[in-house]
Design goal:
Blueprint: H1 4-25, E1 30-35, H2 38-53, E2 58-63, H3 68-75, E3 81-85, H4 92-95, E4 101-105, E5 124-127, H5 142-150, H6 159-168, H7 178-190, E6 194-199, H8 209-214, H9 228-237, H10 251-264, E7 269-274, H11 285-297, H12 301-308, H13 315-339, E8 342-343, E9 348-352, H14 355-370, E10 379-385, E11 388-394, H15 397-401, H16 406-416, E12 420-423, E13 427-433, H17 437-456
Parallel strand pairs: 1-2, 1-3, 3-4, 4-5, 9-10
Antiparallel strand pairs: 6-7, 8-9, 10-11, 11-13, 12-13
Helix pairs in contact: 1-5, 2-5, 2-6, 2-11, 2-12, 5-6, 6-7, 6-11, 11-13, 13-14, 16-17
Bound molecules: manganese (II) ion.
Manganese (II) ion binds near residues 39, 86, 107, 141 and 142.
Length: about 450
């Protein structure tokens, strides 16, 4: 059943689709600007695939963050259609000054609550779940909104990318809901996504079982996740060959493994989502999402986009980036286990200047909470970049239910110190001047306390 609010969002997305179609028909080059994480890269992939399949041309730029200065530069170009995906909702004012038409396909909350702006010289179609009171953290990702915005072309095979992006934005955590569920159900019906029960090991399609278990953090396997030595011991004790792929295990090995892993965490067995008719390395949406993230972190955006477009000459290279990233994650978890986080009353934080730790700090601090190495308090990762501190904050559903909204806190706290920030209630980021770090941490600590107290009133 499609609810009324969802129907409004789908209608808005259909308007975007019609606008895109009209520009492709006029042979305009479509200018796509998207975010550098798995969600943003799949958003760009969905849009680029659509334009290509429809016989049009496109130009993609991937950015770590959309600044008004990026939009200033676009003002000097002659493109007739700009699409901002997984970003843009926070920049509507600057976007309204572009000379061409614009589609914004985003799921982030705008800090000031403004989504619609008037523009004299162009048409702007803003597709964002928050306009219709739909939750952009759980119900739909940037890739989902992008998919809805091209849905009228009936390229249902792109649903795989839509769900891969949602996975990357952690929207599969408690099962799919809302718009994500609508996309999934339709894809199952069209045969473009297959769901089955299986061991949810992160790299089961590409890595031997020993690494597949070590690299699995979602869900965490206490004692084994991030710990190759313990994993090998566990496999030896249960007479399971370490070097086979999951699919190569004998029935007997498989059943023992399944039983033992379920003993550690029952969530390890459950639904896995696969894309049919694609290279083996990309069939599992979790692996696909991790692969794209690895490309994004290494700024190998063209590798990511070309893989999404079905050109595989850079796939092996992308796999090596993923392998490196997995090793960094393992080292990062060792770092957090050893050093822990600095504890404040209501939050905790890890500060690092180490290049390798910076790449994984946000992910491993959050996994640290799942592994119960760290307490369940919002966690900040603080990374020094010249005279700035890049802050990444994460928390748990439990804390969100207690009233914590990190998106609001990162936005307001950073602005108090001439920084910028924002994001979702469960994960958000900020950039602040380095000399304000301690003040910033103290303010965030107070704001979390305030939100929790306010919620319990
Ligand atoms: Mn996103």
């Amino acid at each position: 059943m499609i609810q009324k609010q969802q129907r409004y969002l789908l209608n808005r997305a259909d308007e975007a689709c019609d606008l895109l179609r009209s520009h492709i028909e006029k042979e305009h080059v479509v200018r796509i600007i998207s975010h550098n994480d798995a969600d943003g890269l799949t958003s760009a992939g969905i849009l680029a695939n659509t334009v290509q399949k429809a016989g049009g041309r496109f130009h993609v730029t991937i950015l770590p963050r959309l600044r008004d200065s990026n939009i200033e530069k676009l003002r000097k170009t002659r493109y007739k259609l700009f699409i901002f995906s997984d970003m843009g909702s926070g920049n509507v004012e600057a976007i309204s000054k572009l000379k061409g038409d614009v589609i914004i396909a985003d799921h982030h909350q705008s800090a000031d609550g403004v989504y619609e702006v008037e523009s004299e010289n162009n048409e702007i179609i803003h597709v964002n779940p928050h306009i219709y009171d739909i939750d952009g953290t759980k119900d739909v990702s940037g890739s989902g909104v992008s998919y809805l915005s091209v849905h009228g072309f009936e390229y249902y095979e792109l649903a795989g990318l839509a769900l891969t992006g949602a996975y990357g934005d952690m929207q599969f955590k408690n099962g799919l809901q809302g718009i994500n569920k609508l996309i999934l159900d339709e894809a199952i019906e069209k045969g473009t996504i297959i769901v089955k029960d299986e061991l949810k090991l992160s790299y089961a399609n590409t890595q031997p079982i020993s690494k597949a278990i070590t690299y699995t953090y979602n869900p965490v396997l206490k004692g084994l996740s991030g710990n190759q030595e313990e994993t090998d011991k566990f496999l030896d004790e249960n007479n399971i060959s370490k070097d086979k792929l999951l699919s190569q295990l004998s029935n007997e090995e498989y059943e023992i493994l399944k039983e033992k892993l379920i003993d550690i965490n029952e969530d390890i067995y459950g639904k896995i989502y696969t894309i049919p008719n694609i290279r083996r390395e990309l069939t599992n949406i979790e692996e696909y999402s991790n692969l794209l993230n690895a490309c994004g972190k290494n700024k190998e955006y063209s590798a990511a986009i070309s893989i999404e477009l079905g050109k595989y000459n850079q796939l092996d290279y992308a796999e090596t980036l993923l392998e490196k990233y997995s090793t960094s994650m393992q080292n990062g978890i060792e770092w957090i286990k050893k050093e822990g986080c600095v504890q404040k009353d209501n939050i905790q934080y890890a500060y690092t200047e180490d290049k390798e730790h910076k790449k994984v700090a946000a992910a491993v601090t959050s996994i640290g909470i799942d592994l119960e190495v760290l307490p369940d308090k919002p966690v900040l990762s603080l990374m020094k970049m010249d005279n700035l501190i890049k802050v990444s904050s994460r928390t748990t559903d439990n804390m969100v239910n207690q009233g914590v909204n990190l998106g609001v806190i990162m936005n307001q706290a950073s602005q108090s110190f001439n920084g910028t920030g924002g994001g979702h209630n469960i994960a958000a980021g900020a950039t602040i001047p380095a000399n304000q770090m301690d003040n910033f941490i103290n303010l965030v600590d107070e704001m979390v306390e305030y939100q929790i107290n306010k919620n319990s009133d």
